[in-house]
Amino acid sequence: MNYKRGDVILVRFPNSDFKTFKKRPVLVVQADGVETGLRQRLVAAITSNLNRTGSTRVLILKDSPEGQQMGLAADSVVVADNLATVLDREVDRVIGTCSVMDRVDFALRVALGL
Fold it and tell me: What pTM was estimated for this model as a whole?
């Protein structure tokens, strides 16, 4: 299956121990057309822990137009400082699309020092 930048997908996302996983929504942040030769995508975690705030995080309210378009089940935070590479086989399905990629891009620039 082909996923594009801005898609919100459900995946088995690695916990901080890199041994266990949790199914969660993530945001595809990898640029379209990047040929890695591997069936994987660079993604940013999405969490419902609203205590995780700051310049590297983007709050999305589930009842907002953005939250509805993203298919979120709860108020959430896109965590641009928690990136992972996930294999395509770990993707369950696409649940939505992010319409505030400009805000995510800003958070990514802060997180990566760009």
Answer: 0.91
